[in-house]
Design goal:
421 residues, alpha+beta, Porin, 2 domains, eight-stranded antiparallel beta barrel, 24% helix, elongated
Length: 421
């Protein structure tokens, strides 16, 4: 029996009561970040509608109570890539109603005079046109950033910003009895600037009605590029408020890596003394096993009638590269080990076997199989980048644990071993 095997077995048997006395728990640790979900998870659709108010050149001079409210609606599809960041794209419709000082302006309407009352006598006319287009936003979950991620939270505040482009339509009859046309206006030239751009930002308030359904309150502010007032304003402010619903597809929550946590040992001198005694007994047992092994070797040589060489012990791995839980990239500290191994390989004319490992106490078979392949292929690539011929490097994976002394030994199985063939 190998000397190292005897020592390991003795340590494991003698220290087993001490290890079992510590009830190891496995908990999610958000401090290590969150695990990215699958691509098909965290998708959503949003539908919302409400009203907005146009603030053109003449609207700025009107009393707030006389300004026109007009309908607005959005339909989005989007995805969250993390608890903080997401995107959404979709289409929008908004009707812009306001005031103009020129009855010949595009979209000027005489049928709005009754709503404006005495303003019509002062040469201020109504104006109405529709905008239909596409829009996109970048989403940032403010609640998760300030308060930390919490599954099932009732309220979330999300800041967003984005841009849109739209096509403008107006009625070709000032009394509203005509047909809607797709045209614009600038400096008296009908037909120019019939497509406009806008920048938007807002606060999206989400109230959870269930695991997959949210009630939305969208407070939004648009800066619309317009040419409806014969050059009076280049950009038109357009604040709005909308209510809507969101439906979330697939997995909606995020998980943190699972790590083992051992309970803290109480500061009790009696318990500490007991542990010290057990450690001293374990050391004495190891020394006794070493003496027994030496005696056996001496008797073996005596039986052979000569003093022979020491038994050949199988050579262990040239090096072992260790990884954090759930990761397959080589850390800076472990990269120094890879560099040292490359130096040795450059000096030797040998072939090597690389084996990828992952512990079987965390994750699942699908995750662990991928980790083993990614780890061993990552080490091979790093060695090839250092000038090692890839033909000298055989790669394989092992579905067992590299070190199988229970869950507390799991970190020792997240590795890649390098052996001489």
């Amino acid at each position: 029996m190998k000397k190292i095997t005897l020592l390991a077995c003795a340590c494991a048997l003698f220290l087993a009561p001490v290890v079992n006395a510590q009830e190891v728990q496995y908990v999610e640790d958000p401090a290590q970040g969150y695990i990215f979900n699958r691509m098909q998870d965290n998708w959503f659709v949003q539908a919302e509608g409400g009203v907005g108010v146009m603030m053109s050149y003449k609207d700025a001079n009107m009393k707030l109570g006389k300004r026109f409210l007009a309908p607005k609606a959005n339909l989005f599809i989007g995805k969250w890539f993390s608890p903080l960041l997401g995107v959404r794209i979709g289409g929008h419709f908004e009707q812009m109603k306001g005031a103009t000082d020129n009855i010949n302006n595009i979209g000027a309407r005489t049928d709005m005079a009754d709503q404006m009352k005495d303003d019509a006598d002062r040469g201020i006319y109504g104006q109405k046109f529709n905008r239909i287009g596409v829009t996109g936003d970048v989403l940032f979950n403010l609640t998760n950033w300030l308060c930390g991620y919490k599954p099932g939270r009732f309220y979330n505040a999300t800041l967003y910003a984005g841009a849109s482009t739209s096509w403008d339509f107006y009625n070709d009859k000032q009394d509203g009895t005509g047909s809607w046309k797709y045209k614009g206006w600038k400096n008296g030239n009908e037909g120019s600037h019939d497509r406009n751009f806008a920048l938007q930002a807002g606060l999206l308030n989400s109230f959870a009605l269930g695991k997959h359904v949210d009630l939305l309150l969208d407070l939004r502010f648009d800066m619309v590029q317009e040419h409806m007032d014969l050059g009076h304003k280049t950009w038109v402010e357009y604040p709005s408020a909308m209510l809507g619903f969101a439906y979330k597809f697939g997995k909606t929550e995020w998980n943190a890596p699972v790590v083992p946590v051992c309970p803290q040992v109480k500061d009790n001198s009696a318990e500490l003394d007991a542990l010290r005694n057990k450690l001293a007994q374990a050391n004495a047992k190891i020394r006794d096993l070493e003496n027994q092994l030496d005696d056996c070797l001496k008797k073996l040589r005596a039986c052979e009638g000569k003093k022979g060489p020491d038994p050949v012990v199988k050579e262990g791995p040239l090096a072992t590269i260790y990884y954090p839980i759930g990761k397959s990239y080589i850390t800076p500290v472990q990269m120094e080990v890879v560099n040292a191994v490359a130096e040795v390989m450059n000096q030797e004319n040998k072939d090597y076997r690389l084996c990828g490992w992952a512990d079987n106490y965390t994750g699942n078979d699908q995750i662990n199989i991928k980790l083993r392949h990614d780890r061993v292929n990552g080490v091979k690539k790093a060695l090839v980048d250092k000038g090692i011929d890839g033909g000298r490097l055989e790669t394989m994976t092992d579905n067992n644990n590299l070190v199988d002394f229970g869950p507390q030994s799991a970190p020792l199985s997240r590795a890649v071993t390098i052996e001489r063939k």
